[in-house]
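Methods — Computational structure assignment.
A single polypeptide chain was analysed. Its primary sequence is given first, followed by the predicted tertiary structure written as structure tokens.
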Amino acid sequence: MGTSLASPEAQAEEVVDRLHEAYPDSTISLNYANRLELLIAVVLSAQCTDERVNDVTQELFEKYQTPEDYAEASEEQLAEDIYGITFHNNKGGYLKGIGEQIVDEHDGEVPDTMSALTDLPGVGRKTANVVLQHGHDIVEGIVVDTHVQRISRRLGLTEEERPEAIEQDLLDIVPESEWQQFTHLLIDHGRAVCGARSAECGECVLADICPSEKGDSDVDLASGEPW
């Protein structure tokens, strides 16, 4: 039976503590060697698996090493070079635009502010948060990907549906020192146990405090649908 703790803050802290124990080595799973590679990898990872991105970027990062390289390539060539990535044609355009804008407006350096990053093609708040956290050591938000979105709702940490609104709820209850790690912990837990289509509640370290737990609830709070 799953029952949330008395307050959202207590619930969030307990979730973080237990997941740290379950996933002590939790970290970003994209491969990159510098800020530009990080930015490109995160843009490519939208609606695509990190494994696929890592496979494609292995050759991509050998061919394109500077913002100028991306700016000077055609969208068609970039799309061909990232073939296999979801929406590769659109993302080819993003990569060229990112290269051009970094060269023209940021002296060839990946910017270090939320506003400048989200001005880049294909970069939303989620992507910008990842780049700030792992590229610039600036933590000013929580990255809300599909795992964080789903599991936060299942755990009763938010009732919001949009990532931006979910992030605001989480910022109020997750300890600031855990903002960066919170995302990685929930991603690991989502991949291992709490999947979108199959939640293995019998194997879950959070089952007793999860209001969506199958033994206690007939409804998946992430979707609002019956289990």
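Note: The chain has a mean pLDDT of 96.
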